[in-house]
Design goal:
The complex is a heterodimer.
Chain A (H helix, E strand, L loop, with lengths): L2 E13 L5 E13 L3 E5 L6 H9 L6 E6 L2 E2 L7 E4 L11 H10 L5 H14 L15 H13 L5 E5 L7 H16 L7 E6 L2 H7 L2 E6 L4 E7 L11 H27 L12 H12 L6 E3 H7 L4 H13 L3 E4 L2 E4 L1 H8 L2 H15 L1 H12 L4 E3 H9 L4 H18 L3 E3 L4 E3 L5
Parallel strand pairs in A: 3-8, 3-9, 6-7, 7-8
Antiparallel strand pairs in A: 1-2, 1-4, 4-5, 9-10, 11-13, 12-13, 14-16, 15-16
Helix pairs in contact in A: 2-3, 2-4, 3-4, 6-7, 7-10, 8-11, 11-12, 12-13, 12-15, 14-15
Chain B lengths: L6 H4 L7 H23 L19 H32 L1 H16 L2 H15 L5 H28 L3 H9 L4 H36 E4 L2 E4 L3 H10 L3 H30 L17 H9 L1 H17 L11 H36 L2 H37 L2 H16 L6 H11 L3 H4 L2 H4 L3 H13 L3 H9 L4 H35 L1 E4 L2 E4 L3 H10 L3 H34 L3
Antiparallel strand pairs in B: 1-2, 3-4
Helix pairs in contact in B: 2-4, 2-5, 2-13, 2-23, 3-4, 3-6, 3-8, 3-10, 4-6, 4-23, 5-6, 5-22, 5-23, 6-8, 7-8, 8-9, 8-10, 9-10, 10-11, 14-19, 14-21, 14-23, 15-19, 19-21, 21-22, 21-23, 22-23
Classes of the chains: A alpha/beta, B mainly alpha.
Chain lengths: 428, 575
């Protein structure tokens, strides 16, 4: 079958303050064939949405080539339609007007526009809502309008940017199955679909192929074909195997990277903000039966109703603080982690405090500076400047924010936001 | 909906950038150019005397109609300006860096100063005809309302959700179609809100600029403002009451037939939260028009024309490669050189203008008078705050009362309070009170309502849960005000106070000098300085006064209001 889309060695970076470049996509290769649904799976910030915008022609790469039906992509191409995470419906247009908008831009005759718009509305299950305004509709119905608006132009490629993530669980599932039904019954006037998601099960449920994105450096780390017939059963063992496999793929790489980082630990280690409560929560869940200290990541994610995006940062923080070990899709409490789970609040604070001091160089550094100063206080800008020599401004801000929240829980030092000062004193 | 604070407060930056300085130079140069031309034209080009005005109340509807029409024309001109200027500033970053600071300076220049330096020039366009005077009047209203409308539109264009723009591009809409179908609708609700605020100030200036004398040129255009001026000269209190009543009716008609329908119509352009807890604005006029299908019928040809125009795609600028980049660098250099030249030219012209007739003593005097006026503004805004904040909170917490008081407060803000001046002035004359003290309240007569209705709005949006929590813990009395009520309304109060203080500065030009028949009362202040210089046609001192006043306004905004505003936004905004 013909390739709808071919992407070779695409590189995209954003300029940072200080002349550096933040590499968002590095050496990305991808093809989309006719009749395929391809999923781009990765954590937020891994560059998958950036890639989608490059394909949509909304942004340009710094290097590499993108071609659609054999021609290079130079701007939004006719025949590429997009469904947005936040729906992007115009509140001042009715459902019908929203759907017609793309057709009007094609300069079709009025009668044809109306006929096709009504047909699309009918197909997507919006009959009867033609004259409603988007704000009168529920989230699920709004996203249906989003689909109808994309489908009505009969695109060759449908790009979907986390189209279900703004919806509640039931609505999202309902919309997914409807879409897959239409697709497998060949009722959609579309040749190929590219789906961006951070939901592993969603990717396994819908896609023929799943591309895993690793962040920093952002590239495609694995290409997994999902050889299951539609409709797929979430409870079937094969389905679960695929989910497990992807979990392992995704954690293995991250853990490797974390180990590498820990070896060369410096104060400029990037820290992702995770609250101590989330860490305590996950430790408690892990320590309790049926896990008793060790759990399969997909299981505990499901149990805790956490998305990959929410679970991974917590697991990583626990790994960093040596409260847990993440290995091959499993997470296991360490000795310290178990003591934390058993301890009372004060004991927990102490364990946490020691874990930060020995594993987070930035926290140890701030504490040392505060200890050494006569006033036992120091302005935030002092540390921020220091960090920004080695990392981007927003990353430095996030690292400091994380350290503040951890240090507060561990009572390692305190921070006053109004005066932007770190100090050793707690309010008396 | 929120009133936008002036540009310098939104800017987040304390020190002026070179763009601010350039903008100041350009505005000053522009005013100087007008003043210089006007100085050369000091011969009375046309004296349209007020004698033809008759105080018979039967003539008032006709006068009111003319006043209202001037307002409408000025509004149309301001809209045209808004759509072009703001769009240019938002779409072209190169232009935006200059155009936005320009708005800030223009916003700070006292409008009546503008009027006095431009009126002679406008008259000279059509010697001996009334048309020039009409133009000057419309220009005065325009120069009062255009800037904040343009700034609001600019802000909206800059904050169009990225999703919307991307969806538009993906659907293949041309930039022209994107502007009219996505960007302009998105910017409509804040624009209409700002139009209402502008209009409120506009009534003040339309009535003032109808009857004005600059040097030996005296204009008196038929309208409510001139009617009042004649009534003041003849000390006719009854006629003044007639005029006040006529003005009330005009504003009521504008409100019911223009703004209520516009607000109700613009509700559909509201983006975001689907909470319908607040009643959508209603308008009987709009409902009537919608049911009659009159609008549909009238708009159909226009709609067809617009639809047809969307099909036009600009020629594709296909190659956006290296050549373009080089072009743009070259263009950058040319643009900056041009601006530098223009700025230097303006500074030179201003210097020449000032050097020829102004001394350092003049300068010192205006700064001293500026301090006096500032003292007046600060004290009166403080008093108005003390009075209206508790009342506003009281009203805002009682929905039924709010429904009655809020429209009245907005209405009072729109009422041209200069029409009320004679009532006060006649009392001051009667009791022989000190003008330095007793003319001061006139400064906040109009602006005070901004404080009231913003505080009401703030109190109304206070989360019910916070109130309940306060009750639950038995927080009462002063503690309740200090810990709950005042922090919760603080951001709203500030917006009101900032707008009010800007209004008070502007009003000082009118309020610090007042006539009652042949008696003239004056208070020492920069406003009086400008007003007297304008009356005697002394353009150098008018320009000096305006420049110093604009300087005061910008500095107060930057040093006082801006830090407070951002503190409020950061710490007290309940979103």
């Amino acid at each position: 079958m013909a390739n709808l889309l071919e992407i070779h060695n695409v590189r995209r970076s954003f300029p940072r303050s200080g002349g550096e470049e933040l590499l968002v996509l590095d050496d990305v290769n991808l093809t989309l064939k006719e009749g395929e649904i391809v999923g781009l799976l990765g954590r937020s910030g891994s560059g998958k949405s950036t890639l989608l915008r490059l394909i949509a022609g909304l942004a340009r790469p710094q290097g590499g080539t993108l071609s659609y039906m054999g021609a290079p992509i130079q701007g939004p191409a006719q025949g590429v339609a997009m469904v947005f995470q936040g729906f992007a419906l115009f509140p001042w247009m009715t459902v019908l007007e929203n759907v017609q908008l793309g057709l009007e831009a094609l300069n079709l005759p009025q009668a044809e526009i109306r006929r096709r718009a009504l047909a699309a509305i009918d197909l997507i299950g919006l009959d009867g809502y033609e004259s409603a305004y988007p704000r009168e509709l529920s989230g699920g119905m709004r996203q249906r309008v989003g689909f109808a608006r994309a489908v009505v132009v009969h695109p060759n490629i449908l790009l979907m940017d986390e189209p279900f993530s703004a919806l509640d669980v039931l609505t999202a599932e309902n919309l997914r199955t409807d879409l897959i039904d239409l697709w497998t019954n060949r009722k959609l006037p579309i040749k190929g679909i590219l789906l961006v998601t951070h939901n592993i099960e969603e990717a396994v449920l819908m896609c023929d192929r799943v591309l895993l994105f690793s962040s920093t450096p952002a590239r495609i780390s694995a290409d997994i074909a999902i050889n299951l017939p539609q409709p797929r059963e979430r409870t079937s063992p094969q389905f679960e195997d695929y989910v497990d496999r992807i979990y392992v793929e995704m954690t293995a790489r991250r853990v490797e990277r974390m180990r590498a980082q820990a070896a060369t630990a410096s104060i400029a280690m990037p820290l992702h903000h995770v609250s101590p409560n989330q860490i305590s929560g996950l430790i408690e869940a892990l320590a309790a039966p049926p896990y008793d200290g060790k759990a399969d990541l997909p299981d505990i994610a499901y149990e805790q109703e956490l998305e990959v995006d929410e679970l991974f940062p917590v697991a990583e923080a626990m790994q960093l603080l040596r409260l847990a070990d993440v290995e091959g899709g499993d997470i296991k409490l360490t000795h310290m982690g178990k003591r934390f789970a058993d301890g009372e609040l004060n004991e927990r604070k102490e364990i946490f405090s020691r874990a930060i001091m020995s594993n987070v160089p930035l926290a140890a550094h701030i504490r040392k500076v505060l200890d050494e100063r006569v006033s036992h206080s120091a302005p935030k800008s002092r540390f921020l400047d220091e960090l920004e020599d080695h990392m981007a401004e927003d990353a430095a801000e996030e690292a400091l924010k994380t350290v503040v929240s951890w240090a507060r829980f561990g009572e390692l030092f305190s921070y006053d936001d109004d005066s932007a000062m770190f100090s050793l004193e707690n309010p008396t | 909906m929120k009133i936008l604070p002036p540009v310098s407060i939104e800017a987040r930056r304390l020190l002026p950038s070179r763009w601010d300085l350039l903008a100041a130079a350009l505005v000053l140069g522009f005013i100087v150019a007008f003043a210089d031309t006007s100085r050369l034209l000091t011969q009375p080009l046309s004296v349209i005397s007020g004698d033809h005005l008759n105080l018979s109340p039967w003539l008032l509807p006709g006068y009111a109609l003319r006043t209202g029409l001037r307002m409408l024309i000025a509004m149309a001109v301001s809209l045209a300006f808004t759509f072009s200027y703001a769009t240019w500033a938002a779409k072209n970053p190169r232009a935006g860096t200059l155009l936005v600071p320009l708005l800030d300076i223009l916003q700070s220049v006292p409008v009546l100063g503008f009027l006095s330096v431009t009126v002679v020039w406008f008259l000279s366009l059509t010697p001996g005809r009334i048309f020039g005077a009409e133009l000057a009047c419309v220009f005065a209203i325009f120069s009062n309302q255009a800037w904040n409308m343009a700034f609001s539109f600019y802000q909206s264009l800059r904050t169009v959700p990225e999703d919307f723009t991307e969806a538009g591009r993906m659907l293949g809409l041309s930039p022209w179609a994107r502007f009219w179908r996505i960007e302009a609708p998105f910017a409509t609700p804040p624009l209409i809100w700002n139009m209402m605020v502008s209009m409120a100030g506009g009534w003040f200036f339309v009535t003032l600029s109808e009857a004005i004398s600059v040097g030996e040129t005296t204009i008196s255009l038929p309208g409510i403002g001139s009617y009042i001026a004649v009534a003041i000269a003849q000390r006719d209190l009854v006629a003044i009451l007639y005029a006040i009543f006529a003005m009330l009716v005009v504003i009521l008609i504008y409100d019911q037939l223009l703004f209520r329908p516009l607000l109700a119509w613009a509700d559909r352009f509201r983006v975001g939260d689907d909470d319908r807890s607040e009643d959508p604005p209603q308008s009987w006029a709009l409902t009537m028009l919608r049911r009659s299908r009159l609008i549909d019928w009238m708009a159909a040809p226009f709609d067809r024309l617009m639809r047809w125009s969307y099909r036009w795609h600009p020629p594709n600028f296909g190659l956006r490669g290296a050549t373009r980049e080089l072009d743009s660098r070259l263009a950058d250099i040319l643009w900056y050189l041009l601006l530098c030249g223009l700025g230097l030219f303006c500074i030179w012209r201003t210097y020449a203008f000032a050097h020829a007739g102004l001394s350092w003593a003049d300068f010192g005097l205006t700064v001293w008078l500026g301090c006096l006026t500032m003292l007046r503004v600060v004290v009166l805004i403080a008093i108005a705050s003390l009075v209206w904040t508790p009342i506003g909170v009281y009203v805002g917490l009682r929905p039924r009362l709010t429904r009655i008081v809020q429209p009245v407060a907005q209405f009072l803000a729109a009422f041209p309070n200069n029409l009320l001046f004679p009532l006060f002035v006649s009392l001051i004359v009667f009791w022989k009170l000190s003008p330095n003290v007793w003319l001061s309240p006139l400064l906040v007569l109009g602006p005070q309502w901004y404080i009231l209705f913003n505080v009401i709005a703030g109190a109304r949006t206070m989360p019910k849960e916070l109130m309940d929590a306060g009750d639950n813990f038995g927080v009462k009395g002063w503690l309740w005000w200090k810990r709950i009520a005042l922090p919760a309304i603080f951001p709203h109060y500030l917006t009101g106070a900032i707008t009010a203080s800007g209004g008070a500065w502007n009003a000082s030009v009118v309020a610090e000098v007042a006539n009652w028949g042949s008696t003239t009362l004056r208070a020492d202040g920069l406003g009086a300085y400008i007003a007297e210089a304008a009356t005697s046609g002394d353009f150098r001192h008018v320009v000096l006064g305006m420049a110093v006043m604009a300087f005061f306004v910008v500095v107060v905004n930057r040093l006082f209001w801006q830090p407070l505003y951002w503190l409020a936004e950061r710490k007290y905004r309940l979103s």
